[in-house]
Amino acid sequence: MTQVIYDSTFEGWLSAVFEIYELKLEDVVFAKSEVSNALLFSDKHLVSTDLVKAKRVLNGLKQKLSKEGFANIYRAFLSEIDKIDETLFQYVKYIFSSSINVEGDLSNSPVLEVRKAAHLTGRESHRMEAFVRFKLTKDNLYYAIVEPDCDVLPLIERHFKNRYADQRWLIYDAKRKYGIYYDLENTTSVQLEFNANSNSSKFLAEICDDDEEFFQNLWRRYFSSVNIESRKNTKLHLQHMPKRYWKNLTEKIPNLKR
After folding, report:
1. Which Pfam families match (predicted)?
2. Which of 62, 67, 169, 213 could disulfide-link 142, Cβ–Cβ 3.0 to 4.6 Å?
3. Could you tell me the residue ranges of all domains in the chain?
4. What percent of the chain has pLDDT over 70?
């Protein structure tokens, strides 16, 4: 058994796929950045991310898949489901070993699992587009904190760049400790530690625009006023807006923490 160690990025995984074929490695398992103690007696192969190798794998997949099927590989990787890198590799092996397009063969377990993972990421990205709530800082930066189940920032970047092209903004993934920043021209990925108490009055007073707390409370009152108690359907509401998102939704924080 060979433990293939890569840097946890999509390009790193693609580079690993290339080298597995190049070196004819058999019976492989994937590890992100660090060697797994569960495989102490396996051989180790450390992969250095190589964009040329990654592109060659992508070009090969593009020739074998539809546009949607090709995109689903990236979406599935971003799902971060347990062992998705190994499932994707089994899928890639099936793709390259077949003379026909196999993405519709749901009787094949890796094909089905990749489809499900891609769907999960797609659903989560659509939710994030709806659930992002920006706050305005004193230096005119709009920021939002999210904690999605999947790593969806790369997928929602274009949506927010198009929708909020005239203002600087930062969307920060508190679970993965990175964000995407837009400077009115370009978006870049940034690494930072963000204040966990971002909904407190003290925090708002320190960094937010003077009117920010007023507008947050105004939004809460509006949200309450448009909800008709007699038509309340809690089950449907939770289906469309699961509780795990509420901590970062302005309308779900009734009173700012003091």
Report:
1. DUF4130
2. 169
3. 2-122, 132-252
4. 71
